[in-house]
Write a structure and sequence with these properties.
12 strands; 2 domains; five-stranded antiparallel beta sheet; Alpha-Beta Plaits; Beta-Lactamase
């Protein structure tokens, strides 16, 4: 029966590690499929502090301690690659995301409290979740962030402003006479213009700026750690690169109008700064278009 039990443990689809409180690998079972896991048999008898990079080892030690202190199932997610593990055997060449299910044992192993740590490869699941998250945050046409992600970003920046007084500015802009562009050149040309605007934003704005399509031909740019006067200068740099070329030998003479604002003390909602920037946009429209106004 003992031989059969060991055979069952060896056949577990996911690797199970017996780890002592001090971080020693007392035993390893299962996880033999090298398409999904590295061969960990060479780790038995070694310490996580000898096997893993310092920051990883400290993290594992902390999670072992949490499981021992709580006495209940402890679940964590983490990323490891073969290069993170000194002495890892054959296995995948890429990084792997794991779900670790850690349970304290009710007996000591080699004179120490210990846990069983079952590591499940969730890389595929994690990639699907990331793709779904990206789809939920991204505008399908332009690849920019969508309204949902924009509001989330503004809420975060407002909280930082309230806490640290770190300023954030916002530019709201749209294409002048976009309806006429659609009517005269067709909706495909209109879509191409929006895609080109998105490309210009990525090219001429800073890496820290958050660019979103708010809806229709309206775009919003969130500029962290930026006063509205500096934001106006950045916005003008973008504006002068329009008109745009839709495709070879086809120039679109559409211009953009925008409004800039930054957070102020009375702001309670992220919509407050959007409202002021939107008012600046309409000031630009009334003043003849092809300009950016500050409020």
């Amino acid at each position: 029966m003992q031989q059969q039990l060991m055979s069952i443990l060896s056949s577990l689809p996911d690797p199970a590690f017996i780890l002592t409180r001090s971080g020693r690998y007392a035993a390893i079972f299962g996880g033999k499929d090298l398409r999904h896991y590295h061969d960990g048999s060479g780790l038995v008898g070694r310490s996580i502090f000898d096997v893993l990079k310092e920051d990883k080892a400290q993290w594992f030690a902390g999670e072992i301690e949490k499981a021992l202190e709580s006495g209940v199932l402890h679940i964590v997610e983490y990323e490891l690659s073969g290069s993170d593990v000194n002495g890892a055997g054959d296995g995948p060449s890429h990084s792997i995301w794991f779900e670790g299910r850690v349970q304290a044992l009710d007996f000591q192993v080699e004179g120490e409290a210990a846990v069983v740590w079952v590591a499940s490869n969730i890389t595929d699941k994690n990639e699907v979740q990331q793709e779904l998250r990206q789809l939920s945050e991204t505008d399908a046409l332009t690849g920019l962030y969508n309204r949902r992600k924009l509001i989330e970003t503004l809420d975060q920046r407002l909280a930082i402003f309230k806490r640290e007084k770190s300023q954030t500015s916002v530019l709201v802009f749209d294409l002048d006479n976009f309806k006429r562009l659609n009517d005269e050149m067709g909706h495909q040309a209109g879509d191409a213009a929006l895609v080109e605007i998105a490309r210009l934003c990525r090219q001429h704005l800073r890496q820290s700026d958050v660019i979103a399509r708010f809806g229709g031909d309206e775009f919003v740019i969130v500029m962290p750690d930026t006063h509205r006067c500096d934001a106006l200068e950045i916005s003008e740099r973008l504006r002068v690169h329009v008109p745009i070329v839709l495709r070879e030998n086809l120039r679109c003479d559409a211009t953009i109008s925008g409004g800039v604002s930054d957070f102020s003390g009375p702001d309670r909602l992220s919509s407050d700064i959007l409202r002021r920037a939107d008012e600046g946009l309409y000031l630009s429209k009334r003043a003849g278009r092809d300009r950016v106004s500050v409020l």
